[in-house]
Amino acid sequence: MFDYISGLLSYLSGNGIVIEQGGIGYKITCANPFSYQPMMNKETKVYIYQYVREDAMILYGFKTREERELFIRLLSVSGIGPKNALAVLASGNPDEIIRAIESEDNRYLTRFPGIGKKTAGQIILDLKGKLADFSISGISESGTGDESLALSEALDALEMLGYSEREIHKVIPELKKQELTAENYVKEALRLLTNA
């Protein structure tokens, strides 16, 4: 199973992107491929979910681990496939999706393609209460190029050092205000975490 692919963003289309790494172009299906436009021809990190069927293997890509986790949780709902889960992520703000599930807002959920009243009810039934501590406040989609890659790598490093997601998310807003290397993001985050 892949966690992420990091490489040159060499192509994008209406349904996905191609990340070139080691002479191989990985076709990755994304919720909103055009959000990657600012990173075209730059080093890009994409979090991956590998979906395997008997007739196909598809890589789904996300800007943050949190988006990927929400996608996986949506897939766990009866009646939701990858296409529906991706449509929900493409059409909605992840924080709003979580709020809608937690507040049982059927109307919000039924506005997504392929999600009717029955499926919206099933999403709420299966996921309500399981997303309360879930946060999508990871890297902003407006972050581009080296800065967002460096921040992403720094957040991964903090996780490897044993910091919880909750602790890491507390320092993200402060880190986003700066443009640093991955190493300096880690140093700054450690300074913030030890002074908290």
TrEMBL record:
Domain III: annotated span: 146-196
Entry's transmembrane regions: none
SMART domains: HhH1 (SM00278)
Molecular function via GO: ATP binding; four-way junction DNA binding; four-way junction helicase activity; hydrolase activity
Top-rank taxon, per record: Bacteria
Keywords from the named record: Cytoplasm, DNA damage, DNA recombination, DNA repair, DNA-binding, Hydrolase
Domain Helix-hairpin-helix DNA-binding motif class: start-end pairs: 72-91, 107-126
Pfam families named among the record's database cross-references: HHH_5, RuvA_C, RuvA_N
Any one GO BP annotation for this protein: DNA recombination
Compartments where found: Cytoplasm
Cellular component aspect of the GO annotation: cytoplasm; Holliday junction helicase complex; Holliday junction resolvase complex
Annotated InterPro entries: DNA_helicase_Holl-junc_RuvA_I (IPR013849), Hlx-hairpin-Hlx_DNA-bd_motif (IPR003583), NA-bd_OB-fold (IPR012340), RuvA (IPR000085), RuvA_2-like (IPR010994), RuvA_C (IPR011114), RuvA_C_sf (IPR036267)
Family: Belongs to the RuvA family.
Comment block on domains: Has three domains with a flexible linker between the domains II and III and assumes an 'L' shape. Domain III is highly mobile and contacts RuvB.
Subunit (UniProt): Homotetramer. Forms an RuvA(8)-RuvB(12)-Holliday junction (HJ) complex. HJ DNA is sandwiched between 2 RuvA tetramers; dsDNA enters through RuvA and exits via RuvB. An RuvB hexamer assembles on each DNA strand where it exits the tetramer. Each RuvB hexamer is contacted by two RuvA subunits (via domain III) on 2 adjacent RuvB subunits; this complex drives branch migration. In the full resolvosome a probable DNA-RuvA(4)-RuvB(12)-RuvC(2) complex forms which resolves the HJ.
Role according to the record: The RuvA-RuvB-RuvC complex processes Holliday junction (HJ) DNA during genetic recombination and DNA repair, while the RuvA-RuvB complex plays an important role in the rescue of blocked DNA replication forks via replication fork reversal (RFR). RuvA specifically binds to HJ cruciform DNA, conferring on it an open structure. The RuvB hexamer acts as an ATP-dependent pump, pulling dsDNA into and through the RuvAB complex. HJ branch migration allows RuvC to scan DNA until it finds its consensus sequence, where it cleaves and resolves the cruciform DNA.
Protein name: Holliday junction branch migration complex subunit RuvA
Organism: Sporolactobacillus shoreae
Origin organism lineage: Bacteria, Bacillati, Bacillota, Bacilli, Bacillales
Gene of this entry: ruvA
